[in-house]
Design brief:
The chain is built from 13 helices and 17 strands. It is of the alpha/beta class.
């Protein structure tokens, strides 16, 4: 027999050393050590990110692209270096460009509105066209498409999940047709952790002639999509979900697709020339980056990408998947607790409901034990309504979380249910 070769296993994370890089974790809440399990909403920032931003703000801070003085030139170099770093991070190819935004929400609105603004002759979306969105989406990848459909007369179709919250390619095939103009899907459902077969679904939609949109907000901290390997015209994500600063994000995509977007922000630095009665928009990416950008935030976002790669993507993925599996097993063993999408083993979050107990009450009692979780509909109310289980409690994991914190979560939920029942 020939040699049997195994893929190298990712090394275990050095959790004490990693946790020391996050100042916010070094505190107690209500007298208990903080167990921060709300990473699906916002991750914390390591010293590497804080230091990069501090260096910019104390050494290079100036407006970019417009100044001939030294600080302006250094700030411009910092900004464009951050763009290059993030393009490498997401595996962008030569056919792609990257635009800085304030986050996923702005990026998705830029796409959805940009495809119909600018008049009927330039608009990609028109009356009787069809827009398909998945039924797993965060409101930010649903409401902009509702608005686009209303504004243009297009029809909004929903690729509905099954009773377990899964999406199926056969269902998408039935929706795709000659009028399909846009297909929008998440890389990971923020309400359940479901990770749909988005690569295959993007390919199907592209073959049908649609522009394709990927909400990667829940994927950039682990299982990072490689843009050049996807049939993806637009991809959006936020800095605050990948150990970066709040108010930062990215819209990345194919040049040809981005060129179709009418700018959402009109003003300075997004024009070539301006007259009193007309203007000529600048080339990408400046065209979609009107106004003074968050340069320090872009620097911090690039530092976060470097931090993730330094820790190791495979090691992070294995770590958060193991924490999720531990939590699923422990919570499922509690009488009356139902975990949503337990099959989503490659997720970094889980949501659960407890019979006859409201999640806000569970979240409040967990907070009294120093455990931070998220409760409610998670900005995905249609999906929660579809699953018929009501609002949930969500725990979401990051590279700095520990198995002990998961055990605290499980024990905390059990104690909370004893009190509340």
């Amino acid at each position: 027999m020939g040699d049997i070769r195994f893929a190298p296993q990712p090394q275990a994370l050095d959790l004490p050393a990693l946790r020391a890089q996050f100042p916010v974790l070094q505190q107690s809440v209500h007298g208990a050590p903080l167990a921060y399990l709300d990473n699906g909403a916002t991750t914390q920032m390591p010293l590497a990110v804080l230091d990069a931003m501090r260096q910019f703000e104390t050494h290079d801070r100036a407006n970019i692209h417009r100044g001939v003085h030294t600080l302006s030139q250094r700030a411009t170099d910092d900004f464009e270096a951050a763009r290059a770093t993030l393009k490498r991070f997401i595996g962008a190819g030569p056919e792609h460009e990257l635009v800085f935004t304030s986050g996923t929400t702005e990026a998705l609105n830029t796409i959805a509105q940009g495809l119909w603004l600018g008049g009927p002759k330039k608009a990609w979306l028109r009356a009787d066209d069809e827009i398909i969105v998945s039924g797993l989406e965060h409101h930010a990848n649903l409401i902009p498409w509702q608005h686009a459909a209303t504004a243009t007369g297009a029809k909004l179709l929903v690729l509905r999940p099954d009773a377990q919250g899964r999406l199926h390619t056969a269902d998408l095939a039935r929706l795709l047709g000659p009028r399909t103009r846009v297909f929008a899907i998440t890389a990971g459902a923020n309400a359940t952790g479901e990770r749909p077969p988005y690569a295959e679904m993007l390919r199907m939609a592209a073959q049908a002639g649609a522009l394709t949109v990927l909400d990667a907000a829940q994927a950039v901290s682990h299982a990072v999509p490689v843009l050049a390997q996807l049939d993806c015209d637009f991809m959006a994500f936020s800095g605050h979900k990948m150990y970066g600063p709040m108010g930062t994000g990215v819209l990345a995509g194919r040049h040809a697709a981005l060129e179709r977007l009418h700018p959402l922000r009109l003003g300075g630095d997004m024009v070539e020339w301006v007259k009193y009665d007309s203007a000529c928009y600048a080339a990408l990416p400046a065209r979609l980056e009107g106004g003074t950008p968050n340069v320090g935030g872009a620097v911090g976002l690039a530092a976060a990408a470097r931090f993730i790669d330094q820790v190791g993507r495979a090691a992070i993925d294995a770590h958060v998947h193991a924490l999720r599996a531990q939590a699923v097993a422990g919570l499922s063993a509690i009488e009356g607790v139902t975990v949503l999408a337990p099959h989503a083993t490659d997720a970094a979050l889980l949501s659960f409901v407890a019979r006859d107990v409201h999640p806000h009450d569970i979240g409040t009692l967990l907070d009294e034990q120093g455990i931070a979780v998220r409760t409610g509909h998670h900005c995905a109310q249609p999906l929660i309504d579809h699953l018929g289980l009501g609002p949930t409690t969500r725990a979401s994991f990051a590279l700095y979380n520990t198995p002990d914190e998961v055990e605290r979560l499980i024990a905390g939920v059990a104690r909370a249910l004893e009190v509340l029942r």
